[in-house]
Amino acid sequence: MVSIKDVRRSNSSLTEKPSGTVAVFVGATSGIGLGTVKQFAKYSNAPKVYVVGRSKQSATPLLHELEVLNPKGIFIFVETEISLIKNVDAVCEEIKTNEQKLDLVFVSPGFLSSEGRKETSEGIDMYSSLSYYARLRIVHNLIPLLSASRNPRVVSILAGGKENAIDINDLELRKNYSLVIAANSAATQMTLAFEELAKSYPMISFCHVYPGLVATDIITKFTGTFKGIWVLPAMLARWTLIPVLHRLATTVDEAGERGLFVATSAKYPPAEPNDPLEVGVALPDGVEVAKSSVLNSGKGNGVYRIHNDSESVENEADSILEGYRLDQVDKTIWEQTLEVWKAALEKSESFK
Prior knowledge:
Blueprint: H1 4-12, E1 22-26, H2 31-43, E2 48-53, H3 56-69, E3 74-79, H4 85-98, E4 104-107, H5 126-147, E5 153-157, H6 179-200, E6 205-209, H7 218-223, H8 231-239, H9 241-248, H10 252-264, E7 295-296, E8 299-300, E9 303-306, H11 319-326, H12 329-350
Parallel strand pairs: 1-2, 1-4, 2-3, 4-5, 5-6, 6-9
Antiparallel strand pairs: 7-8
Helix pairs in contact: 1-10, 2-3, 2-10, 4-5, 5-6, 6-12
């Protein structure tokens, strides 16, 4: 376990790094993303930060807070509905037009609903889009900018280490759907897709994080989606169970501190750094480099499945992922993802 004391010591050292870090945060108007972007603003040296979200008006207080935390920083809000692939492409084009390099992509948009499969206008399940398809599209689109950084990193807050068996013949979850199935599918596909990307872009670190129980408002919002006879039980849970869970949970502030640690620490180096002398903030005494998801002849692949204590998940017992790798399921998932993106954009185009 990386102690919170070591996390804070590492984060505070970020002020000594050169100025001009460029970062993109998606899903940072609430929850863990919000906690992390605040920590990033607090400790980074004159950064430039793109915050992507649905409502600029709602995000105005956040932008003001970030500017107070770091008067030398530049904070830009990009307003869009990020669950749509066409909107992801538009946002990425805007960023690529304005930047020559990108140091960090931090994705954490969330969505829970009791109403079963809910499709976007592009035909993708909303949960699957926000947890996997849109997230990965953002990362894929911005790889040219990431590749130009001395120390590029991608962080996805989801369920690293919680991968499970999935139906390879129903990756879009059209035949069999539940939130549990969707969550398992997104987690497993995210890790395997990161591993596939890392083969072509070994200069980038890919971090898939399971944050554990955090006192965000996503469960409260989830209880508001119940209808019919389930409304009353959901209300009771909102006023009784959820407050108890929040008292037991990690605070958003602490989750944000750990989010910044994962985003900046030398604990999670890429397989082949652009600059071997610049792989993140130096490790505090007693903190070791994390184990990547795949080791080949002692060399890591630059993909990390990270638990809520900021340590990498032990890979030895991962028979599910190992079996999928041997069967080249990672390649199958990547090819299917490309097809889903293509179909989504074609559907958007048909609405014009």
